[in-house]
Amino acid sequence: MDPRSLTPALRVLRLCLHLLTAGLLALVVVRAATGRSDEPAGAVVAVAVVMGGVYAAGSLVPAVRGARTGAAVWLAALGTVWAVLLVLSPDALWLAFPLYFLLLHLLPARWAVPAVVLAAGAAIASYVGHDGAVNPGAFIGPLLGAAVAVATVLGYQALYRESERRRRLIEELIATRAELADAERAAGTLAERERLAREIHDTLAQGLSSIQLLLRAAQRDLPGDSPAAAHIEQARAAAQDNLAEARRFVRALTPPDLAHGSLAGALERLCATAPGLTARCTVSGTPLELPTPYEVALLRIAQSALGNTVRHAHARRAEITLSFMETSVALDVVDDGDGFDPERAVSGDGGFGLPAMRARVRELGGTFTVESAPGRGTAVAVTLPVPVGGDA
């Protein structure tokens, strides 16, 4: 584990493990030098020093902390030196306890637990070999220490995994909240653009168009060479210029999906980018140039309906059909998904955005219907009357 990623608590535990190992090695050396006369004190001290050096090297070499292979090699070297020390001194069995934690921390669980059992067996064999007697204490100490080490390390690892899972979840929630905030800002901006475009089209542009028609009618009733006719012609030209400017404003405020193409093209792009299902767009009839509010309403309804299909319906296929007729334009969005009860959605229990779609259609004097049932898919149908005079 990278030292930079250690928490203060883990740094303290790691330091305690180092101190425990150093203290136990010192105990082995002191007992060999002052205790048993039958121990080869020089050999014990030499092997203990070698073990301390191997341990220190493993703590300092990055390859041991960062790679499983390096850790396994280091543990094998440390275990080999410890086994030699076990043969020379019975006091070396106490070093099994820090070794348990090293094995469990650096090796995968499927290797670490058998390695701990092997280390406990070596400690027991050393005790029995040096003491010459078999008693419960020879087994209880090493086995109990191994059990405590396994429970402690595996429990900590489980808590660490849960903590990491919660941390990732919190990060995802924060990222999602930021995305939602961006989406809300973008939706607010688009809604305001649509509102301004609709207001300009329905008030200023329509008013200028009416003024132009009235001026044209007045011009026909006056002699062509009269000063009043000349003034009316100037007024009509100014109204025409301002009407063209108003329409440019409306086009500039059009949603990006419609700014560089037709409604049919925007619907085709919507189908091509629908995730998780096969969506197809079909256009029938002779395409007409629709007023901007009509195109915006039809596109937003298609986006909302297809979005509901992706999020809620678990559908495999969906089809959007745009039909141009002599006096109306129709939009149908059909899927083969789970379906739902339209009455519950209308009452507000479903939350499928149907009231917003219905409100858009109502503003333009059209009709809106939903046909669905649990397990039978969903069909959303919109019909808007084509205004006389096109985009005027």
UniProtKB/TrEMBL annotation:
Residues 298-388 form the Histidine kinase domain. Its cofactor is [4Fe-4S] cluster. Keywords: 4Fe-4S, Cytoplasm, Iron, Iron-sulfur, Kinase, Membrane, Metal-binding, Transferase, Transmembrane, Transmembrane helix, Two-component regulatory system. It is found in: Cytoplasm. InterPro entries: HATPase_C_sf (IPR036890), HATPase_dom (IPR003594), His_kinase_dom (IPR005467), Sensor_HK_TwoCompSys (IPR050482), Sig_transdc_His_kin-like_C (IPR004358), Sig_transdc_His_kin_sub3_dim/P (IPR011712), Sig_transdc_His_kinase_ChrS (IPR017205). One of its GO terms (cellular component) is cytoplasm. Pfam families: HATPase_c, HisKA_3. SMART domains: HATPase_c. The chain crosses the membrane at residues 42-61, 73-97, 109-128, 140-159. Its EC number is 2.7.13.3. Its main location: cytoplasm. GO terms for molecular function: 4 iron, 4 sulfur cluster binding; metal ion binding; phosphorelay sensor kinase activity; protein dimerization activity. It catalyses: ATP + protein L-histidine = ADP + protein N-phospho-L-histidine. It comes from the Bacteria. Member of the two-component regulatory system NreB/NreC involved in the control of dissimilatory nitrate/nitrite reduction in response to oxygen. NreB functions as a direct oxygen sensor histidine kinase which is autophosphorylated, in the absence of oxygen, probably at the conserved histidine residue, and transfers its phosphate group probably to a conserved aspartate residue of NreC. NreB/NreC activates the expression of the nitrate (narGHJI) and nitrite (nir) reductase operons, as well as the putative nitrate transporter gene narT. This is Oxygen sensor histidine kinase NreB.
